[in-house]
Design goal:
Blueprint lengths: L1 E4 L2 E12 L4 E3 L4 E3 L2 E3 L5 E9 L3 E9 L5 E12 L6 E7 L8 H8 L27 E10 L9 E8 L2 E7 L1 E2 L2 E6 L3 E5 L6 E12 L2 H15 L17 E4 L1 H8 L2 H13 L6 E4 L4 E6 L3 H5 L5 E9 L7 H11 L4 E7 L9 H7 L3 E3 L6 E3 L3 H18 L3 E5 L13 H18 L3 E4 L5 H4 L7 E3 L9 H18 L4 E3 L10 H11 L3 E3 L9 H7 L14 E2 L15 E7 L2 E7 L8 E6 L11 E6 L5 E5 L3 E6 L4 E8 L4 E6 L9 E6 L2 E6 L3 E7 L2 E7 L4 E4 L3
Parallel strand pairs: 17-18, 17-28, 18-21, 21-24, 24-25, 26-27
Antiparallel strand pairs: 1-2, 2-3, 2-8, 4-5, 5-6, 6-7, 7-16, 8-15, 9-10, 9-11, 11-12, 12-16, 13-14, 14-15, 19-20, 22-23, 29-30, 30-31, 31-36, 32-35, 33-34, 33-36, 37-40, 38-39, 39-42, 40-41
Length: about 700
């Protein structure tokens, strides 16, 4: 089948067709006519495309076998391109982070004032590191990588951007109908159903082409949304507290230390130090459960922790007053919303029958754990999540953090993968919407998950934060930035929690304010909180400074590797229309890096001839003209923010210099008499006028007029 896509011609063919009996047919054994491929055993595979505006399309497959059932991984296709592709940026859920994972056992204990029992891992982590020899090679997270061409594409790639001459080709793996897909070496596409069947169908791939790389990514994500159950971020409600500062119990307390007393003590302690925490997540550790050793068979089936929930209530030894009292006390302290952690399958390894029966919800056996899981049928899954979230709501919770979502890939080996995944994902979102709750999606970066974010609008976009580890901070930040390039089109990207007294806290803070997503801490010791840094990102009201839209890597970094090469990672967005660029040092070599910021590499740049620039942490300032570039340097594991305010009528407003995003706390209106600036906070207003920079002390609610001369 051939497809003309914005000037590029794609040819898609069936490369391999597999059956439950072990029989396979290759491309040379299949007869093709008009996108229909027939096998010698009378099986047929039909491909068709849905063009979307001429520059994007989604591809659909329908297959039938009258005699022999297809295998659970029935189809491999090949995408051919009429011109050789150059460098590639890919996001894969093939686990490239095996060396990073070694940091959990050491640093998670260190951050909770315990003596680690394992050797300290090195700060210079090899990446990418393939999971050779591991029983489970895939992950619930995607990991960015670069390659010189399509032969370097990793298996299980979910999203891909490749250069083609002066243009860019973007691909996205989809899950819909019966199927789920992934992209592999040489632009092969694997289509899986997870269960043998005599027929299958569904949208499996989105593609777009554009002369602008950001446009190519945007169009492929729009195609994904058209073909699947996903909605675009800009078309879904903004979660209520995304603009406020939060706190999560996970790294602070983990499983051993979580309790009513520890949560309230930390949150009150932070608020007493004028850290304006406005929302809280009670994470894992509250359940009445049973635990069993993890066996190798569990790793093969996606079960990472054999912990089974017994009862739908919190542990009385940790929450003796119940959750209602916890939520009430937190809100009395000044918290506006409280969320509760759970997994999409009830708990890591499911639940006992009594758990579901007490909720009055249907359940089915979990073949991987010996426990039970929610039913994969939509109506029955809705009953489970309706009961569960209604209970959480009666306890007083306002939202949920739903973890382990990738388990929908493994949980039901007797149901088509795409259908069981969509049932659980949609049932969860419908129940949350019914009870006025929002969802923080976690462990949800596989196609079965992101193809079903119809209503939900926040997603974690990286493997877990590891506290107090300089080496881990670099990788974690880099993963977030590149993953957000794609994921930010369908949800707000969550860069995860972090400790304000982490040695790389400034790096995390700068990345967080450019993320456009939620910003939340996991401080364990309120007395150690870096209040000075927190005040640079949070207004006294608890509102956090943030960008207009999630930041993206600058054009020159799209196919660069700032972790393995000594170049700064630059992330661009705008604040009230004023361009800002984060300058981040994520280089593994632990030394300062130098680079340049070219105005032509910045997306969303206004059409001005001159810009007043300001480097927030260094305090350097000046004027740069279109076509020029600025030299920048950043210390190891640190970050800075470059503000580029267009000079109009001789005046440019930078903003309040005490904040990491100076333009955020001010409102700027232009009139014939000059520029009117209203400040939401006390601070120092930095402006450019008469060829020089001026600093003006302002107070919250004040309005001043800056005449051009």
């Amino acid at each position: 089948m051939e497809l003309l896509l914005g000037g590029v011609r794609l040819k898609v063919r069936v490369e391999r067709l597999r059956f439950e009996t072990g029989v396979e047919y290759t491309a040379s054994e299949l007869e093709e006519k008009n996108g229909v491929f027939k096998a010698p055993n009378c099986s047929r595979v039909a491909l068709r495309a849905m063009p979307l505006g001429g520059s994007a399309a989604a591809l659909y497959v329908e297959a039938r076998s009258p005699a022999t059932a297809f295998s659970s991984s029935p189809l491999t296709l090949k995408v051919g391109v009429d011109e050789a592709l150059g460098p590639v940026l890919g996001l894969t859920f093939y686990n490239l982070a095996v060396e990073y994972e070694k940091g959990f056992e050491y640093y998670d204990l260190l951050a909770r004032d315990r003596k680690p029992s394992t050797p300290r891992p090195p700060d210079e982590i090899p990446y990418p590191a393939e999971p050779r020899g591991r029983a489970l090679a895939i992950s619930c997270w995607t990991f960015p990588y670069t390659a010189r061409g399509v032969d370097g594409v990793y298996p299980y790639t979910a999203f891909l951007l490749a250069q083609r001459g002066d243009g860019y080709l973007a691909l996205a793996a989809l899950s819909s109908g019966d199927v789920s897909s992934s992209i592999g070496r040489g632009l092969s596409v694997s289509v899986d159903t997870g269960v043998p069947s005599s027929s299958f169908s569904g949208w499996f791939l989105a593609a777009s082409h554009s002369n602008d790389p950001y446009r190519a990514v945007e169009e492929v994500m729009k195609a994904l949304a058209r073909a699947t159950n996903t909605g675009l971020r800009t078309e879904k409600p903004v979660p209520r507290v995304i603009s406020k500062l939060g706190w999560c119990s996970w790294n602070a307390l983990q499983l051993d230390d979580l309790s009513h007393e520890s949560v309230t003590r930390i949150v009150r302690g932070l608020i007493e130090r004028r850290v304006p925490v406005r929302w809280v997540i009670v994470d894992d550790g509250w359940q009445i459960e049973e635990s069993h050793p993890v066996e190798e068979r569990h790793w093969r089936s996606g079960v990472i922790s054999v912990r089974i929930i017994r009862e739908p209530r919190p542990r009385s030894d940790r929450f003796p007053k119940g959750f209602e009292a916890l939520v009430r006390e937190l809100k009395e302290a000044g918290v506006e919303e409280v969320g509760l952690w759970h997994t999409i399958n009830a708990h890591w390894a499911g639940g006992y029958a009594g758990f579901f029966e007490e909720l009055g919800a249907p359940y089915v056996p979990d073949a991987n754990t010996g426990a039970f899981a929610p039913s994969p049928r939509l109506e029955e899954a809705e009953r489970f999540f309706d009961s569960l979230l209604r209970l959480f709501r009666t306890w007083g919770f306002d939202f949920v953090k739903t973890d382990n979502q990738w388990y929908v890939r493994f949980a039901y080996p007797y149901e088509p993968r795409g259908r069981s995944a969509s049932s659980l994902e949609l049932a969860l979102q419908l129940a949350a919407g019914h009870y006025g709750m929002w969802i923080l999606n976690s462990m949800a970066m596989t196609p079965e998950c992101y193809s079903n974010f119809l209503l939900s609008n926040v997603t974690r976009v990286s493997l877990d934060y590891i506290p107090m580890w300089r080496g881990g901070a670099r990788l974690h930040t880099m993963w977030n930035v590149y993953n957000a390039l794609f994921f930010s089109h369908i949800t707000y990207p969550d860069y995860d929690m972090w400790m304000s007294y982490d040695p790389c806290a400034e790096l995390y803070a700068v990345a967080a304010v450019l993320s456009g997503g939620p910003i939340y801490l996991t401080d364990r010791q309120p007395e150690k909180a870096n209040v000075e840094l927190i005040r640079r990102i949070a207004l006294p009201s608890g509102e956090v400074v943030r960008v207009d839209a999630p930041g993206v890597p600058t054009r020159d970094l799209l196919f660069e590797d700032p972790y393995n090469n000594p170049v700064p990672l630059k992330v661009a967005s705008t604040v009230h229309g004023i361009p800002v660029v984060a300058i981040l040092n994520v280089y593994r070599g632990d030394k300062p890096v130098k680079g340049v910021v070219r105005l032509g590499d910045i997306p969303r740049l206004p059409t001005a001839d001159e810009y007043a620039y300001y480097l927030v942490s260094k305090g350097s300032r000046g004027v740069v003209r279109r076509g020029e570039e600025l030299e920048v340097e950043v210390e190891p594991c640190r970050g800075d923010v470059l503000v580029l305010s267009p000079i109009q009528g001789g005046v440019a407003v930078i903003g309040i210099k005490e904040y990491l995003l100076p333009p955020y706390p001010v409102e700027v209106l232009r009139s014939e008499g000059g520029v009117v600036v209203r400040s939401a906070v006390d601070g120092t207003l930095l402006v450019y006028r008469r060829g020089a920079f001026e600093e003006i002390r302002v107070s919250a609610g004040s309005t001043i007029t800056i005449a051009p001369s």
